[in-house]
Amino acid sequence: MDKNTYYITTPIYYPSDKLHIGHAYCTTVADALARYHRIKGEEVFFLTGSDEHGLKIQRKAAEKGVTPLQYVDEIIANFQLLWKELNISNNDFIRTSQERHHKVVQDTLTKIYEKGDIYKKNYEGLYCVPCESYWLERQLVDGKCPDCGRPVEKMQEESYFFEMSKYADWWMDFIDKNPDFIQPASRRNEMINFVKQGLEDLCITRTTFDWGIPVPFDQKHVVYVWFDALLNYLTGIKYGTDEAMFNKFWPASLHLVGKEIVRFHTIIWPIMLHAMGVEIPKKVYGHGWLVVDGDKMSKSKGNVIDPLALIDEFGADAIRYFLLREINLGSDGNFSRDALITRTNADLANDLGNLLHRTVSMIEKYHGGIVADMGASEPIDDELKALVASTVADFTKQMDNMEINAAIKSVWGLISRANKYIDETAPWILAKDETKADRLKTVMYNLAETLRNVAILVSPFITTASPKIYAQLGLEVPAQFLLKEAVWGGLANGTKVAKGEPLYPRIEIDKDGCTVIGGKKYVPQVAAPAPAPEPEKPAMEPIKPECTMADFEKLDLRVGKVVAAEKVKKSKKLLKLQVEIGDEVRTVVSGIAMHYTAEELVGRNVIVIANLAPATLFGVESRGMILAASDSQGKLVLADAPDMASGSRVK
Ligand code: MSP
Known about the structure:
This protein is α+β, with helices and mostly antiparallel strands. 39% of the residues lie in helices and 20% in strands. It is built from 20 helices and 28 strands. Strand 26 and strand 27 (636-638) form a beta hairpin. The chain starts with a strand and ends with a strand. It binds 5'-O-[(L-methionyl)-sulphamoyl]adenosine. 5'-O-[(L-methionyl)-sulphamoyl]adenosine binds next to strand 1, helix 1, helix 7 and strand 12. Residues 11-14, 22-23, 25-26, 51, 229-230, 232, 257-258, 260-261, 289-290, 297 line the site of 5'-O-[(L-methionyl)-sulphamoyl]adenosine (MSP).
C-alpha cells in the first residue's frame, strides 16, 4: 500500500570544522526534494544532523584543551544557524551524541551480536583518521587513502568484527532484484565491482580512543563511527521507541549522499539492516562534488567558500537557485561568484522579478489592481495555457526522476514564454483602444494566473519567492503550497493585486569590483592567502591493548652501565655493548648505531630488560635489550637513569 509518506535524509556532517558551500549543496538538494514531495501532498520527514564521534574529533578537542562535546557543541550551533539561514526545512536534527541515538546503537549491536554475526579478533590495518576507515594495502592509491588522498596510519588493536562477508551473495541478489536502489546507474556498477573483488568483514569497534558509544558487551571498546553514524537514520524516526512513527516512514525513500560515501550507504548499510531484520531503504543517490572555480576546496588553497557569508551578501534564494540550477545532480559542478551573479541577475531579477513587477504594475495601472478574465481569448492564450499544463507535467516527471536542474529549466521556459507574451500582446497598445478593454483584462488575467502557477512550481527551490508572489497577486499565502492547485483557472475574478518590492534586486558591480545590492556595497570575500602549510605533526603510534600489572611485572628492568662498545661487523644498525648490571657484565646487541657512536656510549647509564630471552644477531648472542624512545619519523633517544648505581631496579 502506498503510504503517501516520504522520508529523506542527508548525511550527518562531521562537526570537525565549519561547513562549506559543498555541504550546503547536499542539504539544499535534499531540501528541494523534501519541499517537492510536500507540495505533492505527501507527509514528509526530512532528517539531517551531525556525526560527532571518532578519533578526529577527540584529537581536535584535545588540541583545544576542551572536551569533545564542548568542541562539537559550538560547531553544531553554527550548522544549525546555516540551515536556518538557508531556509532548510528539516523536521529534526539528529546528533549522534544524544542519548536516544546511543540506545539505538547499543540495542542494535547487542541484537547482531546475539545473532552470532559479530566476533572478536586482533587487527592490524591502515587507518585513515579523517575518513575514520581502515584500508587494505591494495586499496591505497599512491600509498594514501583512496577516498581523501591523505596519509594512512598503521593501527593495531583488538576489535570486534561484523561478519559482512557472509552476506555478499545476499547483497548481489538484492541489487539484482532492486536495480533502482543505487542511483545514478554508474555508481551502481562501481559498487557491484567493489563487492565482486571480495567483501571483507567489517571492523566495528575501537579501543584506541574513547569518544564514542561504548560497546554494551565489552565496555573497553567503542563503536566504529560508521556503524554508529548509519544508524542515525533509524534513530531519527524513533526506531525501537515509537513503532507507529517508525512504520510510517520506514523504509526511507531516499538517502542523499556524496559520491565518496555511496559505498557505506549501499553495501554496509543494507547488510546491517538485513542482519537486523529491518527493511532496506528504497534508494541511495550519490551526488557529485562541488568545486570552486574548477578547483577542489581546501583550507591550504584558501578557496573554501563560507555559505553564511554568501547568504548575507546575496540572500538564501540566490544561493539555493544557483546550486540547484547550475549543477547536474549526479555530476561534479562548479561554483563561481561570477556565475552566481550572472544567474541571479538573469533568472531571478530579470526573468521572474520583472514578470511579476510588470504584471502587477500594469494591473494596477490599467485596472485599479483588480484581476478579471473577460473571456476575450485569442489563440496565443491557448498556447500559454497549454504551456502551463505541459510545464507542470514536465516538472513533475523531472522532479520524480530527481532531474532538478531540468525541472527548473522547464519552469523558466514558462517564465520566458510569459515575458514574451507581454511583448506579443503589447498591453500598452491595447490600453489605448477602448474596444480592446476586455482583451486587455483577459491578457492581464492570463499573466497573473501564469504567475500563480509559477509560484507553486518554484516553491521547492526559491523559498521566499512564492509567498511574495502570492501576496503581490492578492492571494492568501497557504501554509503549504500544493501541486494539485497548479491548474489553469485557480485565480478568482475580482482578486486585487498589490505591488510590492522587487522580488530580487539586481546585483551591480561597482568600479572597485564590489557588489552593490539594494544600495548596499559588499567587498567580495577575497580568498585568504594560503596559510603556510602546517608542519606535519608526527602521528603517534596507537596505544597497544591493555595489559595487567602481572604482565608488566614479568619484565625485570635494570639500570646498566655501558663499559665497552663496538660496531657489529657487516651491520649498519647494530652496536655490541658490554653492559654492567650490578656484579655482572653481559653482552647486549642494540639497533642504535645510526643514532649513537660506540664512543658516545661508553660510561653512560642505560635501562636494560635484564630477563629477556637471549637472541643471536649477526652471530652475536645478545642477553637483554636496552630501552629507547622513538617517534614515527625514526628519531631515537636512549632512556636514561643518570647517577643510579648499575643493577638498580626500574619499576
Ligand atoms: N559523517 C559522514 C557521513 C555519515 S552519514 C551516515 C561524512 N561527513 S562529511 O561531513 O565529511 O560529509 C558529509 C557530506 O558532505 C558528504 O555527502 C560529502 O560528499 C558532502 N560534501 C563534502 N564536500 C563536498 C563538496 N565539495 N561538494 C559536495 N558535497 C560534498 O562523510
